[in-house]
Specification:
Elements lengths: L3 E3 L3 E7 L4 H6 L9 E7 L2 H11 L6 E7 L15 E7 L2 H17 L3 E3 L7 E7 L4 H7 L7 E6 L1 H14 L2 E7 L8 E7 L5 H20 L5
Antiparallel strand pairs: 1-6, 2-3, 3-5, 4-5, 6-7, 7-8, 8-10, 9-10
Helix pairs in contact: 2-3, 5-6
Amino acid sequence: MLLEPIVPTVLSVRRIPSADPAVLAAYGADPARHVALGLVTCDQDDALYVALDEATKHAPVDVVFARSFYAGSAHASGRLSGEILGVIAAAEPQAIEDGLAALIACLAHDACFYDADGKRGVSVFPHVISSLGHYLAREAGLAPGEPMAYLVAPPLEATLGFDAALKAAAVRAVKITPPPTETNFACAWLTGMDPGDLAACEAAATAFAAAVVDVATRPHAR
């Protein structure tokens, strides 16, 4: 199954080398530990969540703020708003630079949605993180370094996809977020029954994508 990638667009990237303590605190940073901030907007929220996690594996940064915007990038509040704002914090500006470099590389070469119906009318995110960083590990309640399938699609497609993924491999649901989310999609995080079972996560993601494609191309099938 070959799906066309929809590469995310990084809409804005800025740094605050020495942020005001009130701004640090407002965005979830700790003024006692953090000095610098890196801010990114993107037109794909889930791809940026994965990229933020990737940043924590390459630099001593913390993800202090990551929030999807209501209704998605098609209804953004401005030209540079996109679908999400992500903020990383660090004790010094060079760590921010290193974290942003890893984040941008991840968006360019790894994390993205895919076209599920050949018309870009239905998109799917069947992403597998082979080794979690400390951001998504904390959010998922898993250990850093464990693999996780990060699965996203529109409401009905996702529901059938979650069921297919859970039945296709020895995986368990860490978290299922039914619709509507801020962007009106649905999301599930799955990991192997055996910790570290990357193959199970990959099999689940493949089954998820196949189910979404099936619904997208045969929406009224029994």
